[in-house]
């Protein structure tokens, strides 16, 4: 049984997100929450008609955040005849945003190769369950005659540490791994009793008891260096779904507590991508407030936009972004007078 599932044989989160993206692109009129939960692979298996679906709805809310975090525009449509009703809201991903620009053209040979690639994508990406879901979506008003749907969602792949950690959860074993924290030169060995694997803000986290510190810790899987090894003779108590929910709740609290005030250049790539992360933001708005769970991850992302982003607060984030930009400048031998705006964070 997967460590984050609530029932045996639960659908993997990557397939659930993929099926959700597929369904939301397939519809022009949008789908209500009830349509999604009762139809889409990964939700429908746990949906109770006329029953309590509160935990499933919370999962859908987290999945919406993960989709937006991946850079996929998710639209919310409010019906004109029932304004303010959450039950009547419809969700969709505008397929038109992925259409090719009018000035882009392909030769016959290039089109042949693209069609071949599309066939491979179609056959390799749509499971039997996904095809069945698309058929059912047609009855809800979704036009899904194009199996490829013109879009290949970039759902993050699991880190190499995921599978051994999942096995450790199932078997109740203690594991050890090298963990490299931001700002440290050498990784440190950590020996932990895994409690839950959760996906939050588009990244996999391990909630565990650090046996050296005798305290609960949350580890980002992308910072685990090298193999995950079982510790001989050490045992771990069986995990529970309540531990996974507790880990997600803690990450949610951290995400809501951390706020970054930034300025983006109008019309820039940063304005488009970061603006999607803030609901209710007008397309022309340049002052943004972003929530985050990890300062260093956000600093890496913001530094990638260079002069398109100016960080106002917190000071630690501003300094972290500045140090990254200065490092890039110095590594390329750029005179400081040429990079003043970039290094102003």
Task: Write a brief structural summary.
By secondary structure, the protein is an alpha+beta fold. 37% of the residues lie in helices and 20% in strands. The relative contact order is 0.09.
Commentary on this structure:
The protein is an alpha+beta fold and 345 residues long. The chain folds into three domains: 13-139, no CATH class; 162-254, SH3 type barrels (Roll), CATH 2.30.30; 258-344, no CATH class. 37% of the residues lie in helices and 20% in strands. It contains ten helices and eleven strands. It has helices at 13-26, 33-39, 54-69, 108-125, 128-139, 162-171, 241-257, 269-275, 295-303, 315-331, and strands at 31-32, 75-77, 90-92, 173-179, 188-200, 203-210, 215-220, 224-235, 259-264, 287-291, 309-313. Strands 7-6-5-4-8 form a five-stranded antiparallel β-sheet, sandwiched between helices. It has a three-stranded antiparallel β-sheet with strand order 1-3-2. A three-stranded antiparallel β-sheet has the order 10-9-11. The chain is globular and about 60 Å long. The model is unreliable at 1-9, 119-132, 134-155 and 337-343 (pLDDT under 50).
């Amino acid at each position: 049984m997967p460590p984050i599932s609530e029932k045996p044989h639960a659908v993997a989160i990557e397939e659930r997100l993929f099926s959700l993206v597929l369904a939301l692109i397939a519809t022009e009129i949008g789908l209500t929450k009830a349509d999604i939960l009762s139809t889409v692979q990964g939700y429908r298996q746990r949906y109770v008609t006329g029953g309590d679906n509160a935990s499933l709805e919370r999962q859908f809310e987290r999945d919406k955040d993960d989709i937006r975090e991946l850079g996929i525009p998710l639209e919310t449509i409010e019906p004109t005849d029932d304004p303010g009703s959450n039950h009547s809201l419809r969700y969709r991903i505008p397929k038109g945003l992925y259409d090719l620009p009018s000035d882009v053209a392909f030769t016959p040979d290039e089109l042949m190769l693209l069609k071949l690639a599309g066939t491979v994508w179609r056959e390799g990406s749509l499971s039997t369950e996904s095809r069945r879901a698309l058929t059912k979506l047609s009855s809800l008003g979704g036009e899904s005659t194009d199996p490829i749907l013109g879009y290949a969602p970039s759902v993050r792949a699991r880190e190499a540490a995921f599978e051994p950690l999942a096995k450790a959860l199932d078997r109740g074993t203690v594991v050890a791994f090298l963990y490299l924290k931001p700002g440290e030169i050498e990784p440190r060995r950590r020996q932990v009793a895994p409690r839950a694997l959760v996906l939050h803000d588009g990244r996999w986290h391990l909630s565990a008891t650090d046996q050296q510190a005798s305290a609960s810790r949350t580890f980002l899987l992308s910072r685990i260096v090298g193999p995950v090894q079982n510790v001989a003779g050490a045992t771990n108590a069986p995990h529970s779904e309540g531990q996974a929910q507790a880990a997600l709740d803690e990450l949610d609290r951290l995400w809501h507590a951390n706020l970054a005030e930034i300025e983006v250049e109008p019309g820039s790539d940063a304005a488009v991508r970061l603006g999607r992360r803030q609901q209710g933001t007008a397309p022309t708005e340049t002052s943004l407030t972003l929530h985050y769970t990890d300062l260093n991850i956000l600093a890496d992302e913001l530094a990638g936009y260079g002069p398109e982003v100016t960080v106002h607060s917190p000071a630690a984030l501003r300094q972290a972004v500045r140090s990254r930009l200065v490092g890039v400048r110095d590594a390329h031998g750029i005179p400081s007078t040429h990079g003043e705006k970039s290094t102003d964070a």
